[in-house]
UniProtKB/TrEMBL annotation:
Domain Acyl-CoA thioesterase-like N-terminal HotDog as annotated: residue spans: 31-107
A Pfam match: 4HBT_3
Protein name, as recorded: Acyl-CoA thioesterase II
Keywords: Hydrolase
PANTHER family found in the cross-reference section: ACYL-COA THIOESTERASE, ACYL-COENZYME A THIOESTERASE 8
Taxonomic lineage: Bacteria, Bacillati, Actinomycetota, Actinomycetes, Mycobacteriales
GO molecular function, one term: fatty acyl-CoA hydrolase activity
Amino acid sequence: MSSSLGAVLATLELEQVENWRFVGQQLPAPANHILGGHISAQALLAASHTAPGRAPHSVHTYFLRPGDSRRPVEFEVVDLQEGRTFSARRVTARQDDKILMEAMSSFKVADPASAQVTYQPQIPQVPAPEALPWAAPHLAESDEKTRGRWASLRWFERRIIDTEIAPPARSPMWVRPDGTVPDDPVLSASLVAYLSAVTLTEPAFTARGGVGESAQRDHSVWFHAPALLSDWLLYQRSSPSSADSLALANGTMFNRNGDLVCTVRQEMYFPPHRN
């Protein structure tokens, strides 16, 4: 069930079957459920193909059904706005006419004049990735009972800095793809969306006492600067709240040079235990 970076990049080369329709192959995953981060990355790429020359500004995704990772997914793009500065697209992902996911994406024309007013949070002062030990690609991979369950995430490597158990359960880490990524800003943004989703589950797991049955409900990313995927990214994660079977997780991602790459929010659903 392992997925290499090459396999991931191959699935991000969508087949265009009509002007506004695309098909994407999936990756192996636990219980053959499609990974939310992966399908979200594919949806962002599908939308970007209809907004050439504009960079991803944000993406907001609702995950509605798990789907079957052994089969391809169809992505239908709808043009919601084509303005002077912004383009907005809705993407619907389907299998067998059942909707798996709905995503709203925004794209923006670069505005050099806006660089006159910039500000962002400072990158946290943490140990360099080279000074930290190897870490499994997902929290579940560290548990003997679940080892191998998330082997589909072995296309990136990471280094864990420290973890706070009590909410907000801060869990910073360094992360980077396990190989060379083509120099394509939209592809880089899509990989950032993927990474930000699949690793943002962990602070919620930690705060709630361990890995359990769960599902991503929604995921949002605001892109601020291009990710430098040839080097490590610092991802600061936390889970500030949990109520009514839902847990919220936040994240900010930085290039190693200190540039803020993106801000992330995600909510997870933890169904009640059934006998």
